[in-house]
Amino acid sequence: MHEYELQQLRTSDLIRRADHERLVREAARARRAARHQANTDTAEHESHSRLFRRPRSARTA
């Protein structure tokens, strides 16, 4: 009976760890999505700025 209880403890610990890892992955995915959305929103406003223009001078050979 002792081995069965240890196995139950291990199983519950693994389930708890898996739930925690899942929450961490979901939080990271949400942060990435928010960062991507913020970059997309600002890119629309900056599309006419000098930062995105090509250089005016021609490349030398």
Structure notes:
By secondary structure, this protein is mainly α. It has 1 helix and no strands. The longest helix is centred in the middle third of the chain and has 44 residues, at 2-45. The protein is rod-shaped. Residues 50-61 have a biased composition (Basic residues). Residues 30-61 are annotated as: Disordered.
Oligomer: single chain
Mean pLDDT: 84
Sheet/helix structural class = mainly alpha
Largest sheet: none
List keywords for this structure.
single chain; about 60 residues; mainly alpha; rod-shaped
List the SSEs and their pairings.
Elements lengths: L1 H44 L16
In short:
The protein is mostly helical. The protein has one helix spanning about 1-45.
